[in-house]
Specification:
Blueprint lengths: L7 H20 L10 E7 L18 H9 L1 E3 L2 E2 L5 H10 L3 H4 L15 E2 L14 H7 L3 E6 L17 E3 L28 H15 L5 E6 L11 H11 L8 H23 L6 E7 L23 H4 L3 E4 L8 E3 L3 E2 L3 H8 L6 H4 L8 H5 L10 E5 L10 E6 L2 E6 L5 E5 L15 H17 L6 E2 L17
Helix pairs in contact: 1-10, 6-8, 7-8
């Protein structure tokens, strides 16, 4: 079996051919040039896949997100590019794996000075040389706005330095000082005392839609919710506190209130598009930057662990895409997808090829074939992760690969690999590495070849490493 990742030129040609396909109707001389579709890209922070009604939650109420799924395609095997936020955000904007970008942890990362391994010298901002989704769309005539969280570097690397005409709320921090005004966010004018941040974000997005209704627009709405601090509206918290007593799924009422605020915001976006008769020419993408935070959600139902973990709960996320005329209402797609896929997908749908030099290093695969036919398969064997860091959520340095039903995780501290068949064991309870050594060897070879192809940085031995403290209550052996 050829374990090498797909040739780079093959991926690029596939993306460009898809973009050309969608451009053909606009290029036909007998037809007037069609306006490119608007793009509303909604990224929620720390939202687990099963924290939505349409993905099985019985506690959290998400009628607008459920309605979006009923109008578009819902992906059931969607993954974030990383188990934490900054790498996923960089991957979304560039179409590249975090390992290729060398943005492999949340900025500025978690320090473990006495751990067995030290992280590599990784990148702690999104470099200006990268051609972002905003820059590619702006070059095609789009008005571009970033609203909400950024977390990709300090002021020299803020959204306005990466192709966004407007930056409302994006700066270097990864969580808001407060969800209620005064927010103390330097890039967002203060609202009246008590104004709620998620409401403010969507109001700014709707104002941008109003102001740019006559031209194609791209809104990058990256909610601070549902990240800590867990602050919701009092009346909504009270509603979920009462409901939690009668619901098997356990979660904090304040977390539930944050989810409801995100759902309300989507409802306002959809209402604004309907009011301006822009629904039919607008792409809406809804997803999350990593798995749910254990302790806030109670659990990622059906997945092992959560944010900051090497397992499914750390990287399994919701993904819903609606584009009238292409997506079939209420469709579901089980094909594995990952964050970098959104870059070539949106460029293809926007009928712009983007920057050829940048595209030559894009790792994502266009999801357009899946949007048109959710039963289709992508022309790739696997998707990958690389996290050469420690995280309080449980991760030690690791790399991982998912190849169809199989998922292998290789841990740097021990050199041990764990192998799971997700078709029969979605909660990763049964490690099959010892009982199926041939499959483990095959996937390891694929993972190592991929790491080499993207020049992934490895952690290094720590000369100051100290043994982990003994668990509390541990005494001398008798």
């Amino acid at each position: 079996m050829d374990n090498r990742p797909p040739a780079r030129h093959t991926l690029v040609m596939r993306h460009l051919l898809l973009a050309l396909f969608f451009a053909l109707p606009a290029l036909a001389p007998a037809q007037p040039a069609a306006r490119p579709p608007n793009v509303v890209l909604i990224l929620v922070d720390d939202l687990g896949q099963t924290d939505l009604g349409v993905y099985g939650s019985k506690l959290y109420e998400t009628p607008n997100i459920d309605r979006l799924a009923a109008q578009g395609v819902r992906f059931t095997s969607a993954y974030s590019a990383c188990t934490v936020c900054s790498p996923t955000r960089a991957a979304l904007l560039t179409g590249k794996y975090p390992a290729r970008l060398r943005i492999t942890d949340w900025i500025a990362g978690h320090k473990r000075p006495n751990a067995p391994l030290l992280p590599p010298d990784w990148q702690q901002h999104l470099p200006p040389a990268e051609v972002t989704l905003a820059e590619a769309l702006k070059a095609a005539g789009y008005a571009t706005a970033h609203v909400g969280k950024w977390h990709l570097g300090d002021e020299a690397y803020f959204p306005d330095k990466h192709g966004f005409d407007v930056n409302l709320g994006g700066y270097n921090r990864g969580q808001p000082p407060s969800y209620f005004a005064p927010y103390k966010i330097p890039t967002l004018a203060e609202g009246p005392a008590g104004e709620y941040l998620t409401d403010r974000e969507v109001d700014e997005a709707c104002k941008f839609i109003d102001a740019n209704r006559a031209r194609p627009f791209f809104i990058n709405l990256w909610h601070y919710a549902v990240h800590t601090p867990l602050q919701g509206k009092k009346e909504v918290i009270a509603k979920y506190a009462a409901k939690a007593n009668d619901t098997p799924q356990k979660g904090k009422p304040a977390y539930a209130a944050l989810i409801e605020s995100v759902d309300d915001a989507l409802g306002k976006i959809m209402a604004k598009l309907a009011e301006l008769k822009l629904e039919e020419q607008t792409i809406i993408v809804f997803t999350s930057d990593n798995g749910g935070l254990i302790g806030a959600t109670g659990a990622n139902l059906g997945a092992r662990a959560g944010k900051g973990s090497a397992y499914e709960g750390g990287v399994r996320v919701p993904l819903i895409v609606k584009f009238p005329g292409l997506t079939k209402p209420g469709a579901t797609c089980a094909e594995p997808t990952i964050t970098p896929d959104l870059y070539p997908t949106l460029l293809a749908l926007a009928r712009t090829p983007g920057d050829a030099a940048h595209n030559a290093a894009v790792d994502g695969a266009s999801l357009v074939p899946l949007l048109a036919d959710p039963a289709a398969k992508l022309a790739r064997d696997a998707i990958y992760w690389h996290y050469p860091h420690y995280h309080p959520g449980g991760a030690t340095p690791y790399s991982a690969v998912r190849a169809r039903d199989w998922r292998l995780i290789e841990f740097y501290e021990t050199g041990k690999a764990e192998l799971y068949n997700l078709a029969t064991d979605p909660e990763e309870k049964n490690d099959l590495a010892d009982s199926n050594p041939d499959k483990a060897k095959e996937l390891r070879a694929m993972l190592h070849a991929w790491r080499k192809s993207v020049a992934a940085q490895d952690p290094v031995k720590n000369p100051d490493a100290k043994p982990a403290p003994a668990p509390r209550g541990a005494g001398k052996a008798k």
